[in-house]
Amino acid sequence: MSDSELLVIGHRNPDTDAICSAIAYAEFKRRTGTLHAEAARCGDTNDRIDFVLESFGVPAPRFVSDVSPKVRDVMASNVVSVPPEDTVAHALGVMDEKNIRVLPVLTEEGVCKGLLSVFKMTKFFLPVPGRLVESRRVLASVRNLARTLDAKIVFGSNIDQEEDLILMIGAMGVESFFKRFSDYPKEKLLVVVGDRLEIQDLSIREKVRVVIVTGGLPVSQSMVDFATKQEVTLLLSPHDTTTTAMLCRAAITVQHMIHEHFLAFRHDEPLASIEAVAAASNFQAFPVMDDHNHMVGILSKSDFLKKVNRQLILVDHNELSQAVQGADQVEIVEIIDHHRLGALTTTQPILFRNEPVGSTCTIVADCFFRYQVDLPKPIAGLLLAGLVSDTLNLTSPTTTERDAQILKKLEEISGVDAAKFTEKLFTSGSVLTSLPAEEAIVADCKEFQEQSLVFSVAQIEELGFDQFWKRKDEVMSALERYRAKKSYYFSALLVTDVVSNSSLLLVTGAKAFLKHIDYPMVEERVFELAGVVSRKKQLLPYISHCLKKGGNRAGEAA
What we know:
Elements: E1 5-9, H1 16-31, E2 37-41, H2 47-55, E3 62-63, H3 71-74, H4 88-98, E4 102-106, E5 112-117, H5 118-125, E6 137-140, H6 142-149, E7 152-155, E8 163-170, H7 174-181, E9 189-193, H8 197-205, E10 210-213, H9 221-230, E11 233-236, H10 241-249, E12 265-266, H11 271-280, E13 285-289, E14 295-300, E15 310-315, E16 331-337, E17 351-354, H12 360-370, H13 377-391, H14 401-414, H15 418-427, H16 431-434, H17 437-440, E18 445-450, E19 453-462, H18 466-470, H19 472-486, E20 490-497, E21 502-509, H20 511-514, E22 521-523, E23 526-529, H21 535-548
Parallel strand pairs: 1-2, 1-15, 2-3, 8-9, 9-10, 10-11, 12-13, 15-16, 16-17, 19-20
Antiparallel strand pairs: 4-5, 6-8, 7-11, 13-14, 18-19, 20-21, 21-23, 22-23
């Protein structure tokens, strides 16, 4: 995601009004200076929404299931790494240049083999007093020795074979050197020497594995010929003896220095879920993997202090229970809605535009008109679609005079006849025809909380009730399974016939609540609600009334 992100997003299980208002309000924000505003959705579209979007040639908003801060939001994505076959000398140079303490070791495929840390290398270069013999160990190939020393290979054999060698420095008289010399296997000795010709000659005669002549000093041709004859590898180092000896140890490849058992995180993990684990780890940085287990970033402990610049504008809802997951962990800067006020608090004042009109699209359209912002024809079409969908083309009891005024303007700008479009819209896709029962009952479902009780209310709009009666049993069963899964007090489904402007109400859940529904029961748990088409303005107030009458005794199970 981008460094600064402003998402305009509707509720879960979005309807036409939520999708269209999100797209249109994001367009309004961009046209009024907020260029990074982007429409998003946290639920799937349906056939009717797809019909609307295709009608006006507008793509669906980006799907975002969770806006909580993730690892990828704060990690360093420009990963500095080295391959396993690189030398420690080169790796240390990289760490010094980039001022980093932990270096990932990656294969060509981007798979992390381990982490290289200054701490582990320090233990190698500065062994404890009881293991001083380790200070003589040179684990390297001749080629890596030459690369690390920037040395010239005068003669070499098996230069790419990694060997475990023993370092000796020829800085004493030849007799003293020979006494020490005899304590080690000759074929494993690496002798570092200056211009002491006797030491050079002795080392070559005894067939040590490598002789490195330091200081950039020349070696006679006779000595070169002698080394070639004895098959003793001979290198010329430009550095003094002390520096050469130290660099020899650094020619070891990083694969011998890595922490193979390390803690890694996935790029999409929420920061809140891993913070305690990371804090308790001895590591200071952690590789970040993508879905294919390739490293895409590095996360350090200090990254948890970074602010994630993600902001939200909520449209067509104002309750966190209906909002995209993680909305409570980021900044909400605006709310544009036409529903009842829910339980939502913010840390600072925000623009909260909540108006008693028939659709959120009415409010968004008014923003364009009120501030004299050019309204593109396709966006006007979307706003018209959202408005007629939520108001059933101005026939819903939620409809206001402002809805009618706004709709007339939208017809003029879009060139769309609202009545004809409404007919096409509601024939474009029947939820009960196109979806399994489990999906149909949550296609437009919202969670509510009242008197400490949590319940859900869904709505399906159809042309007639024929399809519902064909699938009534499976729809009722799916509704009960959904209620049980969510542990709701009850779950209600309002099936609305947009032709007759009436509904059927299905309820699964608490018997105490069912007792207080005084609409005609046409079948068990199915009630006829003549003239009721609005979940917001008609059904929800009625549900509140039933709960207050005594339908809130949570102890009475379904």
